[in-house]
Every structure is written in C-alpha cells, then in structure tokens.
Amino acid sequence: MELSPAWAQQAPWWTAVWQPLLHHQGLEVTYIFYPEADGVHNGVVLRVHNQRQKPIAYRFEVVFRAADGSEHVEAVSDTLAPGAMRTGDLSGLFWIPFRDGRSLAELGLRKVRVEEVHF
C-alpha cells in the first residue's frame, strides 16, 4: 500500500489579504484598503465575522481620518448568525470616504457594542 504525505489544513489563500482591525467579544473585524477603489480615490471594505456559537447584534462607528486630521464617520449595525460573515457594498461595509482629493491616513472603530441576541 502506498501512502501519501498528510498536509495540515491551511486557511484559504484569500484570508491573508484581510488585515486585522478588531477582535471584541467574539466579533472579528478585518479590512482591505484599496488605494484606487474607483480608479482615483481610496476605499475600504470591512469584513465582520461572528466567531461565537450564538447569534450576536453589533454596532460601531468606523472612523476614517485624512492626513490633515479631518474625519469622516460611518455608523454600522447588524446581526450575525453563529459563524456567519458579511462583507462588501451590499452589506453596507464598503466606503470611499474622501472624494475631494484627501487621502486616507488612519482607520479605526469606536463605540463598539456586541450583544448576544435571542431570535
């Protein structure tokens, strides 16, 4: 009998492109920065992932800070089933915060709330 070498299970290739932003009470938030999301302006997409075994409700503010110190803030809130992930424009998680020539210098979250929900 011929045996093949065993390979450890590896994360999918696409997980490496997501940068960590927050891990709080079972909610993981990661992001991808696009230097020219629309061909000109900076853009950001978030991915939210419920790592709990129970459904959660979450809310937070995304803070986009330009190099000159000015800010643009977006509110995010939703629910996630156990193990569920959301990302992209259809989930309200993609932004081009500055369309006036300013560049994105910093990205952060504030007012983060995570609660278990019962459906």
Short précis:
The chain is mainly beta and 119 residues long. 0% of the residues lie in helices and 51% in strands. The chain has one domain: Immunoglobulin-like, CATH 2.60.40.
How does this structure look, described?
The protein has one domain: Immunoglobulin-like. The termini are far apart. It has no helices and eight strands. A hairpin with a 2-residue loop joins strand 1 (19-24) and strand 2 (27-34). With 119 residues, it is mostly beta strands.
Low-pLDDT segments: none
Order of helices and strands: EEEEEEEE
> Over the alpha carbons, how many angstroms does the gyration radius reach?
17 Å
CATH topology: Immunoglobulin-like
CATH class: Mainly Beta
Percent of residues in helical segments? under 10%
Key words describing this protein structure:
single chain; 119 residues; mainly beta; Immunoglobulin-like; 5-stranded antiparallel beta sheet; 3-stranded antiparallel beta sheet; 8 strands; globular
How does the SSE layout of this entry go?
Blueprint: E1 19-24, E2 27-34, E3 43-50, E4 56-66, E5 71-80, E6 85-87, E7 94-95, E8 104-116
Antiparallel strand pairs: 1-2, 2-3, 3-6, 3-7, 4-5, 4-8
